[in-house]
Amino acid sequence: MRKLIAGNWKMNGVLADLPQLDTLAKAHGDASVDVVICGPATLLGRMGTKGLTIGGQDCHPIRSGAHTGDISAPMIADTGARYVITGHSERRTDHGENDTLVAAKTVAGWDAGLHVILCIGETEAQYRNGETLTVLHTQMDHSIPDAATAETTTIAYEPIWAIGTGLTPTPDEIAMVHADLRAHLTARFGASGTGMRLLYGGSVKASNADDIFALPNVDGALVGGASLKAADFSPIITALEQSV
Prior knowledge:
By secondary structure, the chain is an alpha/beta fold. It has a single domain (4-243), classed as TIM Barrel (Alpha-Beta Barrel), CATH 3.20.20.70. The chain has eleven helices and eight strands. The chain has an eight-stranded parallel sheet with strand order 7-6-5-4-3-2-1-8. Strand 1, helix 1 and strand 2 (34-38) form a beta-alpha-beta unit. Helix 1 (19-28) packs parallel to helix 11, helix 5 (99-111) packs across helix 7 and helix 10 (206-213) packs parallel to helix 11 (230-243). The protein is globular.
């Protein structure tokens, strides 16, 4: 599998921001890694015309129905998107999403032909208490459906305490967690678990990207704030390309 870098615009972006994608497409249109922009639902159709792969930030577990304001996976796919994020900590926290719901959304994404980037991560309190691996194992065991494969699923490890804070685990900590996640995936899914991409997320920026991407079992990144501007995101993409 090619390495993957995904930008998560979160609740940001209006039409005036789309030229950022034109700049990225010019610089990385033939990138040696997979580049994905996960934009707000209001922009996905327009984003899909910019020459980059796009994705949604969330989807409903049901294909259609009386769910005012929700976006289904088929709707996301209909925009031309090829990816969708499930289980992001901001969804788990802000909307009370549990592992069972994340698993259902993941299946919905697959059923719509989307590749799912499934997020896991621990809080600062859990990190300080030495519970990181226990929390991550539980989330993986209950959020990742049994039918997951390397072709349909990417796992993004995002320590919640590092998202948007400027804080990051040490390289040794990231390497240790990713090695454990790889072993856990391989034990459950065999060769498919060995090939499943593992992304790191949490205050990834140009200044630390080289060090993070040099670590074993780090197959790319899920980038938040630094993906909003081409000038910030482009050097991170370049760093991943150079790590291949």
